[in-house]
Fold:
Amino acid sequence: MALNKVLRRAKIKRRIRKKIFGTAAIPRLSVFRSNKQIYAQIIDDTTGKTLASAGSLKHEEAQKAAKLDQAVMVGKIIAENATKAGIQAVVFDRNGYLYHGRVKSLADSARESGLKF
Structure:
């Protein structure tokens, strides 16, 4: 049975979320990737609240850059926002996307900016 892209990603996402859970001590870094933008949120799943967020839509310089460069910028911004919120370590949730391309570059730039995975 051939699944379309959306159903396939939803299935992978459920499988990942069974194992990953963000707490107050180590929250979850969730990535959402659309065709034009990329967003990241740091979430505490025990309370269901977003502790920090970043997106390529909010920043002028990210709008003008290529998509891979947008992901690098968002990774740096989410790491800065996390340190402002007092977060040093997170659990990475790739949200059903392959750890490749924009998702990988966002994670790598967040690591380089001081966020521990």
